[in-house]
Amino acid sequence: MKNMKNMKIARLFGVDLKLHWSFLGILVFVASTSLFSGETLIATGINLLFVLAVFSFIVVHEFAHVFAARYYGIETESITLMIIGGLARLERLPEEPQQEFIVALAGPVSNMVLAPLFLLGWHFTDIPVLIQFSFINSLLAIFNLAPAFPMDGGRMLRAILAARIGRKNGTIWAFRVGVTLAVCAAVAAVFIGHPMLILIAGFIGLAGYKECQEVKRTESLRGVKVADLVIVDGIVVPQTTTVAEMFRILMHSAHQTITVGDGENILSVIPRADIIERSAKGDNRTAAEMGHSIGVTLDTDLSSAINDLRLWKSILVYDDKGDFAGVLDRDAVDRWVG
Ligand SMILES: [Zn+2]
Predict the structure, then answer these.
(1) Are residues 46 and 179 in the same domain?
(2) What is the pLDDT of residues 163-182, one digit of tens each?
């Protein structure tokens, strides 16, 4: 699915350069409006070349982020070109506010360097397109410096706020400022009749929301151990218990998990959702057939247990001697994250 949306076109300085479908949308949009307004094929081709030139400035901008991040020892997996510009996917985000500030600033600075260079080129050569290139680079710098998280200006704002009120709250406030700006831009776009700007505002709002949720999640899991969320009072059933019997037990309980034991040891675990699903299908397996024995220890970081939980919904928890200590279920983690 991901590969269908992003098409790899090149590899530069050890970074994959990819195209998002929305970028191709721009090319189609420019070509069709150009042809429909009666322009010749050659003029349409020149218009498309102009768009590609603009995107080459965006590529330079993204590489400025890439090199700034590399300076702090952070590598970049890919750069994706999309409708709102480019997106450099760093292997991890700089968490040190000062580093995040510099990495975010590097992009607009590259356009601030290009703008006067093109102006100088125009001055000496009189090639008219150079002054347009200079203007576009100035626009790119200003546009990206807007404090609309997750745009560069928004990231710089988050870095400044994070240094004072912490990463989680800094992100929330940067996101709020960004959404307010995006809504204002969208309203203005309606009044001046500029559909592209509405789309861009929507993209920014959505991207900001997604990143904000992710930061909230990782920040609230920071330092939390499996021991903090382990559920010790569980329901234990014998291996021969059927789905129908387990379903009846669950109807009288709020437990999200049933464990399966042989009278001495706990052998496996079955999530509530699986029992309800099997029961609805009229399945009549036994507890021994349904359970799995994936487990973690009490001192595991919750952030590393979360992948198993995503897959299995409930997992077993053992103490440092390898004895059964309880279960961990996705419901408890979701409640914790809020
Ligand atoms: Zn940028």
Answers:
(1) no
(2) 999 888 899 999 999 999 98
Task: Determine the structural domain holding residue 111 and report its residue range.
Answer: 1-145
Q: Could you tell me the distance, in angstroms and rounded to a whole number, from the CA of residue 108 to the centre of ligand 1?
A: 6
Distance, CA 88 to ligand 1 centroid (Å)? 8
- Residue 269 Cα to ligand 1 midpoint, Å, equals 47
- % residues pLDDT > 70 (the chain): 98
In this structure, the dihedral spanned by the alpha carbons of residues 157, 198, 23 and 179, taken in order and rounded to 10 degrees, is 20
pLDDT of residue 155: 93
Number of independent structural domains in the chain: 3
* Residue 177 · residue 147 · CB < 8 Å: yes
Which tokens in the block code for residue 241? 């218990």
d(CA 327, CA 338): 20
Looking at 98, 116, 145, which one is the last position of a domain? 145
Compute the distance from residue 34 Cα to the ligand 1 centre, in Å.
Answer: 29
Please indicate, yes or no, whether residues 11 and 122 belong to a single structural domain of this protein.
Answer: yes
Helix axes 243-251, 272-280, angle to 10 degrees: 120
Using the 3D structure, point to which of 127, 145, 163 is the last residue of a domain.
Answer: 145
Q: Let me know whether 161 and 47 are in one domain.
A: no
Same-domain check for residues 207 and 232: no
User: For the chain, what percent of residues have pLDDT higher than 90?
Assistant: 44
Instruction: Extract the runs of DSSP E, i.e. beta strands, from the chain.
Output: 6-12, 15-20, 76-82, 85-90, 235-238, 257-261, 266-271, 295-297, 314-318, 324-329
Query: How does pLDDT run across 256-280, given as a tens digit for each residue?
Result: 899 999 988 899 999 999 999 999 9
Q: What stretch of H or E contains 124? A: helix 97-125
CA distance 108 to 110: 5
Q: Indicate if 32 and 138 belong to the same structural domain.
A: yes
Q: Same structural domain for residues 167 and 86?
A: no
Q: Which of 277, 231, 239 is nearest to 257 (CA)?
A: 231
pLDDT tens per residue across span 270-309 = 999 999 999 999 988 999 999 999 899 999 888 778 778 8
